[in-house]
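Illustration: Transcriptional regulator, AraC family.
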Amino acid sequence: MLDWVQKIAFSDSSPLETQGMEHKFGFRRLQPKVMPHSHWHGHIEINYLFNCSADYLINGKKISVPEGRMLLFWASFPHQMTATYGEGDLVNVYVPLQAFLTWKLPNEFVSQLLHGEVLVSDSLYACDEQITQIWEKDLLKNNHMMTVQVINEIRGRIRRMSLENYSTYDLANKACNDNNAPTLSGLTHIQAMLRYIADNYDQKITIADVANSTGLHKNYAMKLFNRVMRVSIKQYINQLRLQHAQALLVDTENPVLNIALEAGFGSVSRFYDIFQREYNMSPLEFRRCVL
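Result:
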């Protein structure tokens, strides 16, 4: 259960060495280096550039990020660091998309990311480098409550960014106009489905409801979603519900029945079955483990 936050390994030959890890958080600190190939994965990715700057190629568009910035983008779009400047550190934080969408950030902020935009904070705070060092040390403790605290602080830092001034590279508009980009095929529909699910996962919704939100035939919507997100619509909805339920189990003393219903599960028995299958323990065992 404590390994649900893991360092995520990349290689030069594979977009994501550990395929299927898109539902896990990740963290790494390294000296920035040029990547020989683009890679992609399902996370929302945070890059901190401490005492260094870099050039990126993101979905075929070159951008330059100055020293001392924090940038955020949906890593489902192919991305590659093409040049680095300075001797500083690069910190990568990987946030599962399903967790990110339950954080209820401003709609415009989320929409820009899902349309391929790169968002860059206009400046870092003096404490940002120190807090990433604290996160790194805390994650190494392999303590679930401390890990939950780190995730809450990451969420708070992104929320602060969403409320303050940040810059963009106008990539969302360029992406929408670039009809030849194969990676964008269907992403507008995916964005609509993700937003619908994020807004309604705690209600009784069906795959047909999700498909109708974007005007696609149910079967095509299922195939498209599975191809891009590497998980079925049903599994994705359950992942969001489980993320919500986990937070309620940790942060509240609510009865399991109330948590099951609040997170969108139709019954407590269904909640128990899915939770047990995913985490190899019951919700009550999970609560006792982390308290």
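Reading the tokens back as a structure: The longest strand covers residues 44-50.
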